[in-house]
Amino acid sequence: MMKDSFSSFHPIVNFGYFAAMLLFGMLLMHPALQVIALLCALTYSILLNGRRAVKFNLLYMVPLFVVMAVMNPVFNHAGVTILFYLKNGNPMTMESILYGVSAACMFVTILIWFSCYNAVMTSDKFIYLFGKIMPALSLIFSMVLRFVPRYKEQIKRISLAQRSIGRDITQGNMLVRARNGITILSIMTTWALENAIETADSMKSRGYGLPRRTSFSLYRFDSRDRLVAGTMLALIAIMVIGEASGRNDMRFFPSIKMAHTTPFSIIVFAAYLLLGMLPVIIHVVEALKWKSISSKT
Amino acid sequence: MQEEQLTKPNRRLSRRTLLSAILILVVIPATILMGIYLLNDRKYYFISLLIILYTMLPFAMVFEKRKPQARELIVIAVLAAIAVAGRSAFFMLPQFKPVVAIVIIAGVSFGAEAGFLVGATAGFVSNFFFGQGPWTPWQMFSFGIIGFIAGILFQKGLLRRRKLSLCVFGGLSTLVIYGGIINLGSATIFSPSFSWQSLLAVYASGFWFDLVHAIATVFFLFIISKPMLEKLDRIKVKYGLIERE
Amino acid sequence: MEIYQLQDVSFTFPLSDQATLSHIHLTIASGEFITICGRSGCGKSTLLRQLKSILTPHGKREGTIRYAGKPIEEADQRTQAAEIGFVLQNPDNGIVTDKVWHELAFGLESLGYDSGSIRLRVAEMASFFGIQHWFHKSVSELSGGQKQLLNLASIMAMQPSVLILDEPTSQLDPIAAADFIETLRKINQELGTTIILTEHRLEEVLPVSDRLIVMDDGAIIADDTPRRSGQALFRMKHPMLAAMPSPMQICAGVEAGIAAIPVTVKEGRQWLDTFLQGRSMELPVVDTESRGQSVANAIAGGGKRQKPVIQFKEVWFKYGKEAPDTVKDLSFEVEEGQFYCIVGGNGAGKTTTLSLTGGLVQPYRGRILIDGKNIAKMSAKELFTNKLAILPQNPQHLFVKKTVEQDLYEMLSGSPLSLAEKAEKVETVVQFLELEPLLTRHPYDLSGGEQQRAALAKVLLLEPRILLLDEPTKGLDGFFKERLAHYLKKLNAEGVTIMMVSHDIEFCAKHGDVCAMFFDGSIITENATKAFFAGNSFYTTAANRMARHVWQEGVTIEDVIALCKKSS
């Protein structure tokens, strides 16, 4: 499978896209918009993660959806259309059932968007974005990301060293295991703190702490990024106007009230679909381009 | 002076601590409540997003503004990384996490601000390994605020560097603060509308989990607090964090 | 032009009444390649840190240090960061960020360069060092040699005029170390950067050095070209001679032809030929017997075959189901009381073999017997109580407490002994390893060699009959190595079997009973040490490479010296 093209865009484009999709995903309650968001998120997650995404969606997201949709009406008895009464005397309303479905849909959508986010916004992209505004903290993140794999490796080595003097952490009862785990953690802590002194020296030695520190990155905001960012902004603008004008309002309680579908609201739906599918469209276009180039040679 | 935060003079520190305290203890809960009551139906996600801003911003701004030295960054990064990686030392005991214990020790040893940063960083970075999600801000906030409160209580003399005192604080804070906030988080994330019933249900279902977590924290603090604080004291001398006051 | 001028520099650490550096006079010209050597604790690291004042530890300094003509105090942090590069000993500790490209840019970011300039400098450095292939990788994916190269490159990106390196190769294997020295030579020759480094392993670095400075007890005792520094040591009959490359030591030991004292193996061969001219060449007593003898009889003292305590029988091992075989069809035996050395390149499976012997990993085919018993059927308790122990490569992995003494007692914490019995055991080990002066110190405040001794003490408290060692000489200077050998020999004499994996050919040749060559997952050849090295033509000691065209059996420095002396 070809590498996702959208990931190769400037981090600010990536981040802006996910921020917009997450925000809209949480805010918008109109069923058409919700379905569009879910569809887009699903498509992109499958494009990004392939079979793993299908498994993730089927195995976790579907049951989650069901549980959440069922849970709401059990606890929530608002709404005017009473369908029947539960054993404890509480009413079951149509509004709360529908609301449950809608909320579950939103939640699942958000989670799937996050699974895409995790695949696209790798730590170095985040640190780059963050580094512009918060250089010290982003450096801390970068250091922690460097330390954690190193410490995990140390923990492995230390536990081997402990085992080779007869202290096996995989044997014995809970208390013994916990004690051995603590010994390992303790050794690791001392090791980490003492060795970090040299790392601080290395930072000082290379001028850390001088005023006017800059932040370097491999990313460049090129014309391709401008084009996509412009498109994104235009689509977002349509969405915001649509939302502000109340064209796709939705209310559940006390009774369901949905704005009528008008030509403008259809434009808003289309804009949302386009925005949601943007990474997929980019991917397909680039793949086609590649195909036509390689067929020429 | 070793109770003070890393290297800065005393008075500026207390003003900053006060500012942070107001922001964390007043503004954030107010936002949560406002969000819950003003944004009706199901806009609770915004609250979590706002929290990440509220928790990060004042600390980040203050921290960035005073241009921390290399050794301050290193101390925070090392402690946060130990908290994250420490979980793998207990791979054979699931749910047995040392994070809260390490965050409390960081707060006591290096002050409220460092405590918060260690906690929030640990919460944030661990999700780079386990996956970011809507829960990230809640975790960052809970871990961070425990470290922060530990630092403040220690400075005010209410929390001692003694096993008993630390264990009591650790157990309560894990159960009440961490459990309380995380469950509130899942109540808003997992149930679409806010009701006391659903909140209670979430608290009840999370209770045993929180209890195990609290016991783990107490266990860790009981065993590692003393050697750990000694190690950090030694490091403070070695880094010259006290001498250059 | 002088880049550094040190006049009467002394340095004393706080709370210490003895000066770590005393009355140092030193002038370093721009573009020189300078090697500083001396035993651990002689003050060479302290001296290096004086040359970059932002890294100077607290303490009292006297005398003046001039950098580029001006007192070093006047060089501000920016100048020092940009112009004076400093590479630390442990490659892992020098790296701050998680990505290779970010690490390369780190210093330039601090100096406030704009993105365009950083991009150019980083690209230049990546190309110069051949880093472009792993430019986008995470630091955690790199090998030790690559990490040290990254440290160097990230400093070179700032285009310093002087490069200071504190034992940069001590944590690297010999191949990576030689590559690293070669890169330094290239920097010095092609960019004209002044290089000042400290080093224990001099064989590779001396041929490219302009000057060799020898330090002892805080003072400079020799400062000249490598050859003349060697002569000076010879005239002083100084113990630091023992740290010099083998050809120098042989020449000094023979006490002839000092005027042309050889530095490299090539010069050594020429010197030997000149030396032997007109002399009746002593033919070694070719003990044809020992050559044909089985390994079994090669144990010191020879004689009859001992019972095997470690037996590998057609052992196969791999780390994962899909992973390639790390150990392939491995069979060998170690007999009781032997000092058995496994040598060979990196990644050949040596350390895995050690882990297999210690039962840390299990083979998927074949059997491993310890004392005739299948290891797979032994409990950890049975295996590690009075039977087998491993000294890990990094001694720091064993330290738990805040003093060495507490750490030793910690080792016995699980045993049912009374306090008096424990104290007696600890006392015995402390005496055996001469740890008395270190007992109240924090384990991390000890030098590398001392840490190892403390770790060995912990391991010996288990009273093992078989001791496994993983690269025990890594990062140690010659004196600590000799000391380690001394203790190992003492253990050997008490009947403890020792099995060691090492890159350190010289050490194995000098002290091992039997050596085995590991290659591609298995032992290729195995023989009594002398015969083993005499039989190799390339993978052998420097002394042997120097003398093998005359005496194939001359393996150690002492052998060759003795043969030279007899040929008169």
Automatic annotation (TrEMBL), chain B:
Which InterPro entries has this protein been placed in? ECF_trnsprt_substrate-spec (IPR024529)
Going by the entry's taxonomy, the superkingdom of the source organism is recorded as Bacteria
**Keyword presence, Transmembrane:** yes
- What are the alphabetically sorted keywords of the record? Membrane, Transmembrane, Transmembrane helix
**Positions of transmembrane segments:** 18-39, 44-61, 73-93, 100-125, 137-154, 166-190, 202-224
Task: Give one Pfam hit by family name.
Answer: ECF_trnsprt
The molecular function GO annotations come to: transmembrane transporter activity
Query: Which named protein is this?
Result: ECF transporter S component
- This protein's species is Paenibacillus radicis
UniProtKB/TrEMBL annotation, chain C:
Stored Gene3D superfamilies: P-loop containing nucleotide triphosphate hydrolases
Q: Note the PROSITE patterns from the entry.
A: ABC_TRANSPORTER_1, ABC_TRANSPORTER_2
Q: What is its main location?
A: membrane
Membrane topology per record: Peripheral membrane protein
Which CDD domains does UniProt cross-reference here?
A: ABC_cobalt_CbiO_domain1
Query: What keyword terms does UniProt attach to this protein?
Result: ATP-binding, Cell membrane, Membrane, Nucleotide-binding, Translocase, Transport
What GO MF annotations does this protein's record show? ATP binding; ATP hydrolysis activity; ATPase-coupled transmembrane transporter activity
Quote the subcellular location field of this record. Answer: Cell membrane
- Show the SMART domains listed in the entry: AAA
This protein's GO CC annotations: ATP-binding cassette (ABC) transporter complex
> Domain of life of the organism in this record?
Bacteria
The chain positions of domain ABC transporter read: 4-242, 310-545
Family assignment from sequence similarity? Belongs to the ABC transporter superfamily.
| Protein name as it appears in the record | ABC transporter domain-containing protein
Native species: Paenibacillus radicis
Provide the taxonomic classification.
Answer: Bacteria, Bacillati, Bacillota, Bacilli, Bacillales
